[in-house]
Amino acid sequence: MKLSSWLPLTLLIYGFCLPSVQAALDAGPVTEQRDVQTRFAGSELGIAGLEHWQFELDLDATVEQETGFDESGQGAALDSFLFTGEGDRLDFRLGNHQPTEKGLLFDGKSHRGLSADAQLDAFNSDLSVFGIQGSAEDVAEGHGGYAGGIWRSRFDTRWSDMSVSAGYISGRFQGGALSDGRRPGQSTGYSVGVDSVWWDDRLQLDMEKAITRFSAGREETGRITDGAYRAALTFDPDLGRFPLDWRLGAETTDVGSDYRSPGNQPLVRDQSMDRVFSRLAAGRWAVDGSVGVREENTSRRDMLPAARHTEHQVNLNYQAPEFFGTRWLESPIYDLGLTRVVTDDLSDRPMYTPRDRVKHELTLASRFANPLGSLSLGYSASECRGREYSPLDTRADEVFADATLTLSDRLWIQPSGQLQRERRPDRDVIAYHSFFGFTADAWLIPEQLSWRQKVEFNRTRGVTDPLLARNDGRRHISGELHWKAFAPVHQWPGMDLNLSVSADQTRVTRDERGGLDSYQILLSVESPMPGG
């Protein structure tokens, strides 16, 4: 087998982490860590039938050398890898990747496994199948992971464009008594969905229905079946010559208490949500509003909290033509947001005091453009009060700002900061949170040698209450040097050098250790090929 084209190669040679100062004082093992990264890309493998394929491989591994008082050893962990192949009508991916989009059966996140997509002539459709590996704990026990697939077909008519899908999944469902009230078991799920747009994309309707069957044991008896559904409708009417952009929408979601999909385990079960929203825009003004109701523990299971949250939200946006006639703050945009959330505690357990509450929040923000970059300023205030017998009373306000400035063709800076104050008048407690960040990017040698510097300070200070008084903080400083040592020429690869240094200092007054310091240095070398 030979390759008819060069393979660009990237190798991260060495990296090491210095252990924290506290770890060295704990008389424990010392760990030296090295990161290894590799990248290959090529096309037209010299094998029959693969002349029109494109291949690519990415590897990211960690090698640790651990030295203790009684034993020493070296271990390697493959953090992530991805091998892909693209053909005329068939693609595949092996490794860490996103096998499918988000839905009721799938969480839409990146996992380790194998997936393949095929385009089919029948019904203008495509088929996607995949198998996903479970977590390290599941694999050690000999089980875990899931497999499934999605079939989609598209239909175009005179008035609408429609996509119909059907999904299937089967695998091991994780979870314990604290998360879902049942021990792990085997789960199988099915779903059907319809996505459609009508009348020149002015009406959009999306619907999905899913059913899962869960069994905690190996026997078919005792299986629990439950379902979930979601639907969303958006309408953007044509108002003719009337200068108004008007959009209306509604969405609803309901997830059963026994709904369990192995491909979407983070999905919160036993809840429902209904929401309507609208948007009105005319000229430089725009108003967005929504009303939503979300209910938890819809099955009213004992010993679990049950609540209904009703949220009203309004946001006013205005884009001004100028700022007091000055050219240094051009095209300002102002935002005013108001939110009100009413929580009704629906728990009816004996001797239980409901925690009904209402929360109000106001946010003012402004964004400005100028010849040097952009500037954002804002202020927010919130208040959460208990209703009836609930004594909860929390108030907070915050100011924040950030900017992006271009000082020259070779220097850019990004300062940011925020200051927050939290108060509990009923307990005479007050706390301050502050954050400051600064990032600078500079070309030391144009198009060849660059440097990035980042500095962050985060601090929390509590006063007035001796039980909660604290003075915690974190400092982070990092720098990264990128040097394009040699450019790729003809058939010869180039070389890019990356050197990064970072340091963290954390102080926790209520922690017995008192603080933690850590440092890291990382070196990588890349070899791009011509045209890569």
Task: Give a verbal description of the structure.
With 532 residues, the protein is mainly β. The chain has helices spanning 21-25, 136-140, 177-180, and strands spanning 9-18, 30-43, 54-67, 72-86, 90-97, 111-120, 125-132, 146-156, 160-173, 185-198, 203-215, 224-235, 245-255, 271-282, 285-296, 307-319, 330-345, 357-370, 373-386, 393-408, 411-424, 429-445, 449-463, 470-486, 495-507, 515-527. A hairpin with a 4-residue loop joins strand 21 and strand 22 (429-445).
Which SSEs are present, and which pair or pack?
Elements: E1 9-18, H1 21-25, E2 30-43, E3 54-67, E4 72-86, E5 90-97, E6 111-120, E7 125-132, H2 136-140, E8 146-156, E9 160-173, H3 177-180, E10 185-198, E11 203-215, E12 224-235, E13 245-255, E14 271-282, E15 285-296, E16 307-319, E17 330-345, E18 357-370, E19 373-386, E20 393-408, E21 411-424, E22 429-445, E23 449-463, E24 470-486, E25 495-507, E26 515-527
Antiparallel strand pairs: 1-2, 1-26, 2-3, 3-4, 4-5, 5-6, 6-7, 7-8, 8-9, 9-10, 10-11, 11-12, 12-13, 13-14, 14-15, 15-16, 16-17, 17-18, 18-19, 19-20, 20-21, 21-22, 22-23, 23-24, 24-25, 25-26
State mean pLDDT (0 to 100 scale): 79
Output the number of helix runs: 3
- The count of β-strands is 26
Beta strand %: over 45%
Q: Biggest β-sheet: count, sense, barrel?
A: 26 strands, antiparallel, barrel
Which structural class best describes the helix and strand composition?
A: mainly beta
Distance between the termini: 22 Å
Fraction of helical residues: under 10%
Radius of gyration: 28 Å
> Tell me, what's the shape?
globular
Order of helices and strands: EHEEEEEEHEEHEEEEEEEEEEEEEEEEE
Q: Which segments are poorly predicted (pLDDT under 50) over 5 or more consecutive residues? A: 1-32, 66-72, 136-143, 176-180
